[in-house]
# Entry
Amino acid sequence: MKKNLLLLFICVFLVSCQQSTDQNTTKDSKIESEAEVAFFPDNEMSLTLKEAIEIAQEEALKWSKEALLYSGNSVDKDDTPTGMDGKRKHWNIEFGIPGKTDFYLVTIRDGMADEKAHVAAGFEVMPKNYFIASVEEFKYDTPELLKKGEKITNIYPGDTFAKGYNFSFSKDPQKNIPIVNVIGWDQNKKNMIYLEFNAVTGELEDNFEREQYKTTGEMTII
# Structure
């Protein structure tokens, strides 16, 4: 089940990145044509993962007092790479209700709650240990975990796809802990690096790489 949830997240994250890439093809082409990619600091609209969850959770509780956190990820919608300080402007945060099939999505765009969507049959029925009660369960936030990741391994920000550093979270139902992923690239921008942290202790739980491009440079989801 844990592997299935991890694969589901990876698919959602990559689809989010690809949708943004498709919508910004012209702008991305301009970036690619430059000799070097410019890395601009995030502005005041950028949020840490915990800040994004707090905004989304307030919206979800308006929908249902029973709503609990399920998973979420940053969204690659910026024209230039961001996330170098552990913050992003765009997030998708997902909620559910233990024992029910309801799925509730809150999108955060430019640091503010944007669209909300309720799908009555969006989940399989799952017990409470698949959900996160509140943001207080996250003792470590993305700025701290990114710094830890940079000390653990050579991880680099993306340039034209999954730009900068990206982040996600989910629940490990077996260990009963929230997990935060720090996502970047290897030096050659061929493999995406996923660092999986225990959000309670800040310790690294797992790390792995996934090749995202064929030898022709065409993106592929594996």
Observations:
- The beta strands are 68-74, 91-96, 103-109, 112-119, 166-172, 177-185, 191-198, 204-211.
- The two ends are 19 Å apart (CA to CA).
- The mean pLDDT is 83.
